[in-house]
Amino acid sequence: MQLRKDPITRSWVITGDDPEKDKLESKVAPCRFCAGSKDTPQVVGSVPAETSPGWAARSVVHPAPFYRIEGDPKREGDGIYDRMRTVGAHEVLIENPKHDHQLWNASDGEIEKFFSLAAQRIQDLKQDQRFKYVTVFKNHGAVAGQDFAHPTSNLTATTFVPRRVLHELRAGKDYYSQKERCVFCDILAQELRQGSRVIETVGDFVACCPYAPRAPYEIWILPQTHDASFERRALAHPEMLKELATILRRTLQRVRSLTEDFQMVLHTVPNTQHKSRALQYWKTIDEDYHWHIEILPILAGGRAKSYTFKEVYYTPVTPETAAARLRSMDIDRVEE
After folding, report:
1. Which pLDDT value is given to residue 310?
2. In a domain? residue 183
3. Domain limits at 175?
């Protein structure tokens, strides 16, 4: 396996001729991620349970990782191309010790523990100067590429910043250089003022459909309090995680009313130990970037089913209509 860079799109791609592998998880074997399993992979971090012995959430080395933590990337040229080894980290974040407590039917307290674990693991991996970016993502459903039946997310640390995040960083820097304001904060202010694309607010957090969505019913969750770093904010102000847990649980309940399949990703600030002189997006990054969560439901059928290889995105549902339908769904009430 190796990483290769496309000189046109500037995307890094993992490629290799690994043999076809069986499913990572057997339908009949005991779950390796449940509490008490004797087949759990190497544990690298955990959050203890409050009311009983054991753990509430924990992180383990992925059984079949894309990235491996040992060694040096050894970036090198191949003519006009660039390539490097797949050095990094790939962990499974076990969201809950209970096999049936997913993020949409777990308690807010359980989801808080998952977010606390995520913040701790991101912060820890950013101490490694080889890693430029660390993120958490969840693929749920067969179409989305789900690996395990147990409630899990993935965490990856990479020696490069993904292209989608680079676009956000550059856009944020350009907007700030013109207006000396965060573009995400300005988007939030306009969405709250207009209201047509807002699904729900819970305390400091807003769930809304973006103005120009990539997929039908795409949802973003953003804090109104400006901060570029999820992990810094979460570790300094852990009380915010209760509101985040509530709005995520309710948002995913809405998504699940539409489809079983979705992808979710956390965007936080890159590792600031790597200051790129060429890209120049580091000078005001704490002021111009804003952490957030993006959720892309995957709907069956229709011209918008696949979101791969798109140059111009198409969605048959406007974000205003999507937000109105999502708002009207009958889900659990927010506990005051």
Report:
1. 45
2. yes
3. 163-328
Q: Can you tell me the mean pLDDT for 49-72?
A: 91
Q: pLDDT tens, 4-16?
A: 999 988 888 888 7
Residue pair 256/286 in contact by the 8 Å Cβ criterion: no
Q: Are residues 153 and 201 in the same domain?
A: no
Question: Which residues, 6 or more positions from 214, have their beta carbon under 8 angstroms from its beta carbon?
Answer: 296, 307, 310, 313, 315
Q: How many CB atoms lie within 10 A of CB 43?
A: 13
Q: Can you list the alpha helix ranges (DSSP code H) found in 101-162?
A: 108-125
Q: What backbone phi and psi angles, to 5 degrees, belong to 26?
A: -80, 145
With beta carbons less than 8 A apart as the criterion, state whether 261 and 325 touch.
no
C-alpha–C-alpha distance, residues 239 and 234, integer Å: 8
Nearest to 68 by CA among 142, 26, 116, 128: 128
- Domain at 281, CATH number: 3.30.428.10
- Give this prediction's pTM: 0.91
What secondary structure letter does DSSP report for 31? P
How many beta carbons lie within 10 A of that of residue 258, not counting itself?
18
Instruction: Please report, for residues 19, 29, 259, 279, 291, the alpha-carbon distance to residue 242 in angstroms, rounded to integers and kept in the order given.
Output: 44, 35, 26, 36, 17
pLDDT confidence tier of residue 334, bands split at 50, 70 and 90? very low
Name the domain boundary from 101, 134, 158: 158
Q: How many residues does the chain have?
A: 336
The reply to whether 141 and 221 lie within a common domain is no
